Amino acid sequence: MILESLSLGNYLDEHMSSTTCVLRVMKYQVPQITEPTYTSKAHTDKNLITILYQNLVDGLEVQTKNGEWIGVELSQDHSFVIMIGESFRAWTNGRLHPPYHRVRMTGSEARYSAGLFSLFKA
Ligand SMILES: O=C(O)CCC(=O)C(=O)O
Ligand SMILES: [Fe+2]
């Protein structure tokens, strides 16, 4: 869909055959202090596209263009967040921008998330 919107639909097969995916499951421990803690530093992903799933405990924050951090609120419990990474920015000659994001932990429950990271084959 992204490629089609950039009139790059003809490159879809080439794209699919030159990329691979890594699935990573993450656990964020309950913070030891009562204030909210940032358990992942603000970053952009370096791969092509990331598909994220967070299980029950929210915490993902994304930075807007004017520098404001907003918590990602999903419309339904079992929704996915899709973000592009730096490789996709390079691949589209800077037409799309990967978002800075981080994870903010509050409360008393550990947080689990799963990320499917697509990247160019080595
Ligand atoms: O756990 C999350 O929701 C975000 C993880 C993340 O940003 C990453 O692994 O690059
Ligand atoms: Fe990330």
Features:
8 strands, IPNS-like_FE2OG_OXY, dioxygenase, single chain, 4-stranded antiparallel sheet, binds fe (ii) ion, binds 2-oxoglutaric acid, 122 residues, elongated, 3 helices, mainly beta
Strand content: 35-45%
Average predicted confidence as pLDDT: 90
Which shape, going by the Cα principal axes?
elongated
Quickly count the helices.
3
Order of helices and strands: HHEEEEEEHEE
* Gap between N and C termini: 24 Å
GO molecular function, one term: dioxygenase activity
Organism: Populus euphratica
Pfam family, one: 2OG-FeII_Oxy
Keywords: Dioxygenase, Oxidoreductase
How would you characterize this protein structure?
The chain has 122 residues and is mainly beta. The chain contains three helices and eight strands; from the N terminus they run H-H-E-E-E-E-E-E-H-E-E. It has a four-stranded antiparallel beta sheet. The protein has a four-stranded antiparallel beta sheet with strand order 2-7-4-5, with no helix packed on it. The longest helix has 6 residues, at 12-17. The radius of gyration is 16 Å and the shape is elongated. The protein starts with a helix and ends with a strand. It binds 2-oxoglutaric acid (AKG) and fe (ii) ion. 2-oxoglutaric acid binds next to strand 3, strand 7 and strand 8.
